[in-house]
Amino acid sequence: MLGHHYTHTFLETAVASVNAGCNLELSYGMRNNVFMHIPQALAMGNITLQMLRDRVRPLFYTRMRLGEFDPPAMNPYSSLDLSVVQSPEHRNLSLEAAVKSFVLLKNVRGMLPLRARDLSGQRLAVVGPFADNPRVLFGDYAPVPEPQYIYTPRRGLEMLGANVSFTAGCSEPRCQRYSRAELVRVVGAADVVLICLGTGVDVETEAKDRSDLSLPGHQLELLQDAVQ
């Protein structure tokens, strides 16, 4: 509310939030947060003690249900160690989730899925700033990726034994510098072309919105040249 100028001070924000039913703050930090002003609001009569209790009760009830106050021995997660991180079981589960979460918007003449057994004699071109750049494949609030576990479109197709050629066309999503000649050369020699475009955190994140939905920089030009 403060950032959007609905309120003008932390105290005013705390009063408005509590009165609206909010009982949990994503704060600016321990030394600089809104709800630390609740005692002042209570002393000034802007909120009542009963209202404060009504806000706190469901919050702590939820924390109790989550086991935050249980002895560590009762928490099944306390027995886990770092061996479960990136374990084969979890990586296989991530792969299954990725495969089952794809959204296919259009499939002209049944082009997809590409099958490994049909690719041996095919020449594939993988192009675009998202074709082989692991860093741009993760959205806002994603964990720090470990490169050895990331399969870009180019890397994934090369594992199938296909004859894969590649060019990014532009090195990053903003696509300010576009190499048309290289793209035309790679695409022109291919039987199947996969074009990997998008935005990524370089272009848009929380609090960094775009004014339109157009592809950034020369990405649309890259797409049109590949199709042509």
From TrEMBL:
One of its GO terms (biological process) is arabinan catabolic process. Pfam families: Glyco_hydro_3_C. Keywords: Glycosidase, Hydrolase. GO terms for molecular function: alpha-L-arabinofuranosidase activity; xylan 1,4-beta-xylosidase activity. Residues 103-226 form the Glycoside hydrolase family 3 C-terminal domain. InterPro entries: BXL, GH, Glyco_hydro_3_C, Glyco_hydro_3_C_sf, Glyco_hydro_3_N_sf. PANTHER family: FIBRONECTIN TYPE III-LIKE DOMAIN-CONTAINING PROTEIN, SUGAR HYDROLASE-RELATED. This is XYL2 arabinofuranosidase. It comes from Dicrurus megarhynchus.
